[in-house]
Write a structure and sequence with these properties.
Layout: H1 3-10, E1 30-34, E2 37-40, E3 45-48, H2 63-73, H3 85-97, E4 103-107, H4 110-125, E5 129-133, H5 167-171, E6 173-176, H6 181-191, E7 195-200, H7 214-227, E8 230-235, H8 246-251, E9 257-260, E10 271-275, H9 277-280, H10 301-316, H11 319-341, E11 346-350, E12 353-357, H12 367-370, H13 375-385, E13 390-391, E14 400-401, H14 408-428, H15 443-446
Parallel strand pairs: 3-13, 5-6, 5-7, 7-8, 8-9
Antiparallel strand pairs: 1-2, 2-3, 4-10, 9-10, 11-12, 12-14
Cofactor: pyridoxal 5'-phosphate
Enzyme class: isomerase
Protein name: glutamate-1-semialdehyde 2,1-aminomutase
Length: 452
Amino acid sequence: MTLAERARRVIPGGVNSGQRSIPGLTDLVIARTAGSRFWDSEGREFTDYHAAFGPPLLGHNDPEVAAAVADASGRIGLTGVAVTEAEVVLAEQLAELIPSIEQVLLTSTGSEATFHALRVARAVTGRRLVVKFQGCYHGWHDAVSLNVISAPDRVGRPDPTSTGILPEVLDATLVLRFNDVAAVRQAFAEHGADIAAVIVEPIPHNVGALLPTEEFLRTLRAECTAAGSVLVFDEVITGFRHALGGYQAISGVTPDLTALGKAIANGAPIGALGGRADLMEQFSSRPGGPVFFAGTYNGHPLPVAAALATLRKLREQPVHEHVFRLGARVRSELAALYRRIGVPAVVTGYGSVFVSYFMPGPAPLSYDDLLANDTALFVGYRRRLIEHGVFELPLSLKRSHLSYAHTDADVDRLLEATEAAVTRTLAEGGPSDLVHVSTMGGAGAAAGASRC
């Protein structure tokens, strides 16, 4: 019996996240990672552009981060009481780097950070409604677990990612079109007195890359300020990967709260929620704070050590210069490749993130625009990339990432493999088993009766 078969006997579906159950890859078992690569249990080597949805900005198993974790593991373990010096130093650095952060609390995941952001927003405003945007993903919790990658007939109405969510929870979330300034203004005109928070990915990377207009982000800030609502930037993906100050430092728009995650610690499990002191002091980490906040693994010494080592390297070495240069090269040369072989495509992204949408231009501004993407070609060419030792996640609309460990030779290999994979997919046709190539929408359509 293979390892994958053994996994399916004792783990539902054989994987520990719904985003890891990939059609066509159900027998993949990862054995080792290093730098820009991973190896499977059969000894096959892959250049990795998926990169665990983005955390290892420095590359897998960065030696300086690994050394810091090893040093911490020999000195200190989890006590679950008080605070460590490393937690203090990390909090100070986050407050120094991120414009919106005056105080910060550590979590284990980004989902926890966004959950607590909405909880405290509702607590301080006494309001019920949350605004999110179609195509944005903010974690697994019920209030925001809807309208991410939706089928065309589910856009414009509640599209939960899971069954088992109370309808009254879904009803308390307003879903708007990303980059739609008029829709934002109308929502506040109609519901502003009951909007506790607006939560947004400043770049919705969970559907590849929708770049925000300056007017859109500034409108969110202005409407929240006028209505007394809390503006939450979910920078779990954009934070540190795009800049040390997050995308808010690039855009010049400062939210009230910021959720951080993936790139803080190069793959170690840590998240953070920070923002205005008057909001953060509502949490029960401060004696008397009315908003409950807890977590046994919050501030765990090993992820904190990984985070400090990661931030040190990001500050001291030309990490962003390197990944931004490679990212610009990938996007430019992929676009030229598609023009040369006559494939309608839009190549977009930001910094170290890139994605090819197979559809006519211009670049998409909202999820509605992405409905024109050729899903069969998108998924099909990525499955064939695997035959060339190149890995981009073969799920609908998923972005790809470059790390400090990637090289120009890796990019050369990516371009060659992409041309071969796209050409073959066009000649032989894309896959027909597309039912499960998106796992972030349609639960209500598939099993509407189970909406409690």
